[in-house]
Amino acid sequence: MSTDLPALPDDFARVLAVAAHPDDLEYGAAAAVAAWTSSGREVSYVLVTRGEAGIADLPPEKAGPLREDEERRSAAVVGVHDVRFLEHRDGVVVEGIDLRRDLAREIRRARPELVVVNSHHETFGPGAWNSADHRAVGRATIDAAGDAANRWIFPELVDEGFEPWQVRYVAVASSTQPTHTLDVTGHQEAAIASLAEHQAYLTALDPRPVAEQAREVVLATTGGDDGRARVDFEVF
């Protein structure tokens, strides 16, 4: 996280944020989402899975609906009300043609100038391996942004009524190779409240109060509590 990075371009009106699981966007990017919606930009979410394999003591058929509900409430806190789930299977997301097609469809549906996705890199830094789902979804989203603009890739999407759409930017959150930064000062509290909506998930991870966990995570991912906050992105 660096104050020396150039500012993220702001010449866009619509954003599509893509994540592998409920809660992924809330680990950092939600402060950026709050900044965008508060300035009148339109943001939509696409979740590749419902996170049904994410709670050890809860079977997938119960965890999935619970985590979907938590994500919808979490998104609403930062002004996002269009939340779609692709229902790929949590934990075994396959980076391939089917996922690229599904994501290209959602890009053509939402018609965003900016697509946001979490890191596709192998690690989050030394000693922090990134999950297979995150890597697959990150790479497939970057590819799908190009696919969405090409009429001859997935021509069946045109038959479904989804005309090609050219994305202007893809911004990768939580990247180990950031290129741009966004000032999110004044939006940390919204991001904290958004993450805290993942009550069942966070409680399963850590016995500490959910509000305490959420504050710790958001401050760590937005530059602390020194009065100025930022979210870094790797921009393509």
TrEMBL record:
GO terms for molecular function: hydrolase activity, acting on carbon-nitrogen (but not peptide) bonds, in linear amides. It holds the Pfam family PIG-L. Keywords: Zinc. Transmembrane segments: none annotated. The keyword S-adenosyl-L-methionine does not apply. GO terms for biological process: glycoside metabolic process. PANTHER family: LMBE FAMILY PROTEIN, N-ACETYLGLUCOSAMINYL-PHOSPHATIDYLINOSITOL DE-N-ACETYLASE-RELATED. This is LmbE family N-acetylglucosaminyl deacetylase.
